[in-house]
Amino acid sequence: MSGFSLVIKNARINDTTISDIGINNGKIERIGKLKGADTSIDAKNHYVLSGFVNSHCHLDKSNLLDKMTEDHLGKTLEENRLLLKKLKSSYSSSDIERRATDTIEKMLSKGITAIRTQVDVDPTAGVIPIKSLLKLKEKYKDRAYIELAAFPQEGVVDETKRDLMEKAMELGADVVGGLPLVESKGNERKHLEILFELAKQYNKKLDIQVDETNDPRMSILPEVIKKTKEENFQGRVTVTHAIALSRLPTEKAKEIIQQMKALKINVIVTPSANMITRFAEINDLWIRPSNSITRVTELYDNGINVAIGTDNVRDIFYPFGNCSMIRELHMLVSATRMTTREYIDGAIAMATTNGAKLLGINYGIEEGRQADIIITDGMSKIDILNSDETIPCVIKNGNILSLDENKFQRRNN
């Protein structure tokens, strides 16, 4: 009887340590010099990481590019939302499942072992997207951890729209999503109030898309902070994007970041989609037709849990994307100049263990942690970022999902 169900031999677990990883019952049981295994993989000194965690994406909208024409490209955020509504009116379960399945398979091949997807819940599509993704969540339960956030793409203040959100939660959505920006002016705070009511009603966490523009006058983040404190939701709120923070005066931004830290508010960044978003050009000193990324380094420096997601994949809002977290990391470190060793370490944590913390998964290359592991094509973290984005080996719950040992051999020749 061998000691382990799987042993990864000669795994680089940090910049200076090569070791073996022994796995049993879906957990990392031992790290050290090991013998005896039902199955073994020789990593040949390649870097191992916890599986990538895609903390923010839209599986139900992915691959809508196939339904678009050239004149649909390059529009503003608001124009994109109108186009989405038009395309979504012809949604079917089979269509959503087909497009989302293709995306999930690509994510798996790129080393993503856990996903939080925002799923549209609105009068245009009803709860068809949630029902479709619940099927896929069950189908992929042994290959990927999938968490569904009910996402009110067209708002939630209207009673009919709130009823749909409640139905989505009752069907099995895991998280209450939010998008205050889509409400009519003056209803953004009401949107937040309803989100917190739903989160309390169903005992769920919140993941709210806020401040997608560079205009700090439209910032709803201070209201999220205020509501989080009032409702005693410390540690249960995530904000995605928070781009307006980058345009605030530094001292004001520092004040807000300290408030977020005290309330343990998580932040998700989606670098590529954030950078590409366009807005109408208006003769206004505060309005910019181009976008940016939030103050990632300041958030990181203050100990805030920052995670990363691909956001949209081949759809109306972002017509590109190959489901690669390495591509997103490259965009992140380039756009925010995270080029020191500490920041590179931090960026990779955002795509792995930080995202896992957000989803409540016990990730890390340490004894007792979940055996969701990728063997990368790199010998260092910079090497990983400079790779061709292939992941030679993906392991989920101690089971090998994919393995190409030729990648290791070629790398060492």
UniProtKB/TrEMBL annotation:
Keywords: Hydrolase, Metal-binding
Keyword presence, Hydrolase: yes
Recorded GO MF terms: hydrolase activity, acting on carbon-nitrogen (but not peptide) bonds, in cyclic amidines; metal ion binding
Any one Pfam family match given in the protein's UniProt record, by short name: Amidohydro_1
InterPro entries assigned to the protein according to its UniProt record, in alphabetical order: Amidohydro-rel (IPR006680), Metal-dep_hydrolase_composite (IPR011059), Metal_Hydrolase (IPR032466), Metallo-hydrolase_Enzymes (IPR052349)
Occurrences of domain Amidohydrolase-related (ranges): 47-400
Record bears the keyword Hydrolase: yes
Protein name: Cytosine deaminase
